[in-house]
Amino acid sequence: MKGERKRLTKEVELIRKLKDNLFINKGIIKVIRREYKGDIEKTRDHKDIRKLFDMMGKGEYTLDDQTWDDLDMDKVYDKLDRSYSSLGEATLYSMLRNPLMDEKELKSRDKLIEAFKDNEAIREALQYIFFNLNRDRRNAFYILFLGKYCRL
User: Fold this and answer.
1) I need a labelling partner for 120 at 20 to 30 A (CA). Which of 37, 50, 64, 151 fits?
2) Contact, 89 vs 50, CB < 8 A?
């Protein structure tokens, strides 16, 4: 536990230094803070967002399309989504389609989520970086990974 806390403290310091050295646009920070507390009003293309999920192997508990639609999970996704990059959108989608069942993995993810909730400086610094990357489809993971002529 001490080792983990020490590592996290070092990471917090690194993020603070990064944030201090960035030219921070105060208007963007206001948007990030407002959207963290409420819904992000944006147009989502679920066909593009799901491409990472479509490329990945399916697990034992993967939600199939019928179950996903029956549970109206696109609306759940839209409510949870606070991402500022195409990779963030795709990762959240894949996480929802492939729920964790292992207690240890769930606890580990919960700790990470709590760390971001509890440490505004780290969360905002990372959100600022991803905000500037934006959701430009030219920055989409599958194009970067497979090449600019990828046809998915």
Assistant:
1) 50
2) no
